[in-house]
Write a structure and sequence with these properties.
This protein is of the alpha/beta class. Helix content is about 35%, strand content about 25%.
Length: about 350
């Protein structure tokens, strides 16, 4: 049985703790967390669990076979690197690290040592995303023209990353899974309403070589929570509302029919409005499948669905989006009245 240590028991770490504890083929052997209160509570509820205040001590434990890292992003690279150097398999919460250079180093170490390196892009295990992938690859949607996402809520404000690095990895990983390839052009704008230097709203547009455009609306400032993705094809269109528990995925047999280019100025497109279907989605909780896939990869039973190279591609697009966002914020700041404090529109920080 694989003995796994969990580094970090914060917001997402608690979910990972539950998924790891619930897998009968895994032994959650140790947890590291800075909070003395958290460790005391765990000692009372799980008396056989090894507890550490320092994640690096857990990583150095010779009885641990693999580590799951759910600490702040700034610590991901160092902790994952040390774990790999000590012969341990690694699953890292998204984003995998802070730069593609760090990702390249982790991938190289995992390859050198023959170890598993996975990034926890949980939505790649979601039944709706798997169904979307099936529809795209089968050609049922026709030529894809757009991917449109709203990922907005009131919070949660993150202390170490801005809204781009917190929310965009979900959609970037989904787009990578569905369509592959990197955007040829990236546009971004945003605003820092609460903390100077940390945008809490961001709008991203990615242009792809196959004429597909992707637009992401990301916000911690919305009065309502929305998790909605629309994918438009020439034959059919799909809307996934992750908050709709009864019919989360709807397929619309709708679209437009265009005319020859020479006629388009005088003839409007014709519209086709067909039926709407909602396929039944079945499967486990996605995070449960992330943990099980991690175990299977370690044991040689399956290929990773979200390996280090997926994590690197997500990081590469994040870096490009961050550069575009920085430029936009600079341009906005330069046009603001001089009496407004400069740090009100400070450049985004990771």
């Amino acid at each position: 049985m694989i003995r796994i240590g969990l580094c970090g028991l914060g917001y997402w770490g608690k979910n990972l703790f539950r998924a790891l504890s619930g897998n009968p083929r895994i032994e959650l052997a140790a947890v590291a967390d800075l909070s003395a209160e958290t460790r005391a509570n765990l000692a009372a509820s799980h008396p056989g669990l090894k507890l550490y205040a320092d994640a690096m001590e857990l990583i150095s434990d010779p009885e641990i076979d693999a580590v799951v890292i759910a600490t702040p992003v700034a610590h991901h690279y160092r902790q994952a690197k040390v774990a790999l150097d000590q012969g341990k398999h690694v699953l890292v919460e998204k984003p995998m690290c802070t730069t593609t250079a760090e990702a390249d180093d982790l991938i190289a170490r995992a390859d050198l040592y023959g170890l598993t390196l996975m990034a926890d892009h949980t939505f790649l295990f979601h039944p709706a995303v798997l169904k979307l992938g099936e529809l795209v690859r089968s050609g049922a949607l026709g030529q894809i023209s757009y991917y449109d996402s709203q990922r907005i809520n009131l919070g949660l404000f993150q202390p170490d990353v801005n809204v781009l690095w917190d929310l965009a990895p979900h959609d970037i990983s989904i787009i990578d899974y569905l369509f592959g390839g990197e955007p040829v052009h990236v546009e971004a704008s945003g605003y820092c309403h609460v903390n100077p230097g940390f945008p809490d709203i961001a709008y991203l547009t990615f242009h792809y070589p196959n004429s597909m455009v992707a637009h992401l609306n990301l916000s911690w400032m919305s009065p309502v929570k929305v998790r909605r993705i629309a994918v438009g094809g020439s034959d059919k269109m799909v809307v996934w509302d992750d908050l709709n528990r009864d019919e989360p995925l709807k397929i619309y047999d709708s679209g437009i029919t265009t005319h020859p280019r020479q006629d388009r100025e005088i003839i409007l497109p014709s519209y086709r409005i067909g039926s709407v279907t909602s396929p039944r989605l079945t499967g486990n909780e996605p995070l449960v499948d992330v943990v099980e896939n991690f175990r299977q990869v370690i044991c040689g039973e399956a290929a990773p669905r979200s390996d280090g190279r997926v994590g690197r591609r997500v990081l590469r697009t994040l870096e490009r989006a961050q550069a575009a966002l920085d430029l936009s914020l600079k341009q906005v700041a330069a046009r603001m009245p001089t009496e407004i404090p400069a740090d009100t529109y400070a450049i985004a920080a990771k």
